[in-house]
Amino acid sequence: MKILPKLMLIICFINNIITQAQTDYPQNYFRNPLNIPMQLAANFGAVRSNHFHMGLDLRTNSQENLTVVAAADGYVSRIKVERYGFGNAIYITHPNGYTTVYAHLNKYFPQLDEYVKERQYKDEKWEQDITFSPGQFPVTKGQTIALSGNTGGSAGPHLHFEIRDTKTEECINPLLFGFKIPDGIVPTVSGLYWYDRRFSTYEPGANGITVKKSGSNYTTDVIQVSSPEISLAVKAVDKANQGFNLGIYHAELLMDDKLIYSFSIDKVSYDDTRYINGCIDYAKFVRDKMSIQHLSELPGMTLKNYSLSDLNGIIKLRDENIHNIEIVLKDVNGNTGRLVTKIRLNKSSDKISSTDKTVMPGEGKTITAENAEISLSKNALYDAVNFNMYEKNNPDAVSNTIVIQNPYIPVHDNYTLKIKPNRKLSDEEKRKVVVLFDYGSDKDVVKGKWNGDRVEAEFNRLGTAVLLLDQSQPSVSAGWKEGALIGGSSLRFKGTAKIGDIVSFRAELDGKWLRFARTKDDFVYVFDEKCPKGSGLHTLKVTTTNTAGNINTQIFTFQR
Predict the structure, then answer these.
(1) Cα dist. 270→161, 247, 263, 296, 451 in Å?
(2) Could you give the number of structural domains in the chain?
(3) Is 9 within a domain?
């Protein structure tokens, strides 16, 4: 195969970009934050629900409470304590302009742990987000800062580790900093898909192509397409040496030896992380749990530092000749996988046309039904959508069910939804109305606010919405009988809300606030000096509030 001089220049340019990205950052400045060899459960840029994975997930051998150490000299600049997300997290700012983040921790080092505890009791609030000055908690490289855990939005014991630019707060691929993680395995390909790009990738959607292994590469039969303008997407993973399915770091698409698209995952900010939904086949991800990455740029996908802006990946077939296609996939270590195939325009079909309800990327639009309205911003969509919104009668609710397109079209930012109830509500009933949004795979319940005769709420996904009247009380249940002698190390309550969630939990032990941590739906207090052994019969007053604002107070007694 003869490579054109221009192509060689482009490939050299891309390779220079990759090499430069890997050397622009200080090498070997940061150490492994664990005292066991670094093994990856997930890498930077891997596909997650509504976001890129923004760091490395480091394996802790399926154990909790492993020692976590500072990756370099610096100071603790921030900590977070939250139910979901990072759970317990530490941020360390370093003198070289970077900040490292350590998440899903069980416990901070003793001095910091005591400081956070005192702050929680002072604020009478478990969740915290505290910033520190450089002199409060300085740390040295290798110093113990925490114990690993499984807190927050973690599905199993591990350490989430990030490196950020301190000034911009952009997350940078930690593997560009010279961590030595053995990896000799090339990325693997298991699927290829093509899309008719005369209207939108969403309609009619993906056309699957069977991929076959061919020596050290992959191939397919000649791809016969029915549109003169198409794009491709690939289902691929990088397994490295640990067996986990890691995300693809770098991809290139070439047609007839000409580069037409390329992306690399070097850095992403949290403000931009939701653009992942414009980089993948969102419908396949939501419906089929498949990570399929586009090898083209959707018109509303404006993520910076991701792709070469002058290469949009659209394949334009002006004849019915056979054309060569090559897809090149690389990991940070340079291991390279290839898919080589051919494509041919078979017979052009009629393209999908827009309607008066079509919403295009870059344009805002308000869409109405008889009793509902949504307002989409100009940044809402990544690709064109023939938008459909209608109502269905719902005898169990205080409004019709509003069907907003379907859950398989992504929305980039928040939109405002307004719903009118199907009957007149009293002022007391209005105070107990919530919006239930069903995304198909999960649900969300929010309070919303009244604006005239309609309830307003903001959402960033599509599906079905309905107004519910919630007059139920939340509650917690204890694992002991009244007055029982508690011999374990903690108290645990199970929380229950019929609709929505418990949004507020307050416990008072003999009249004083007690620090309960929230773990998913459980509330846990680990015994400390606030409740010593042999201190007689205790009264524990627990007050909970649900999404609708209903309040319940329960009294429990126990001995220790």
Answers:
(1) 15, 18, 18, 22, 32
(2) 4
(3) no
Q: What is residue 149's DSSP assignment?
A: B
Domain termination residue (choose one: 111, 145, 177)? 177
Whole-angstrom distance, CA of residue 178 vs CA of residue 171: 16
Banded pLDDT at 15 (limits 50, 70, 90): low
pLDDT of 365-378, one tens digit each? Answer: 999 999 999 999 99
Pairing of strands 336-345, 223-225: parallel
Are 307 and 379 part of one and the same domain? no
pLDDT band at 239 (very low <50, low <70, confident <90, very high): confident
pLDDT(16) > 90: no
We report the CATH number of the domain holding residue 481 as 2.60.40.3780
Residue 520: predicted pLDDT? 80
Q: Do you find a cis peptide bond into 204, omega within 30 degrees of 0?
A: yes
Instruction: State the burial class of residue 409 (Cβ atoms within 10 Å of its Cβ: 0-12, 13-18, 19+).
Output: buried
Q: Where does a domain end: 469, 494, 509?
A: 469
Task: Look at residue 13 and tell me if it is in a domain.
Answer: no
208 three-state secondary structure: strand
Structure-block tokens of residue 184: 């000799």
Taking residue 528's Cβ as centre, other Cβ atoms within 10 Å add up to 10
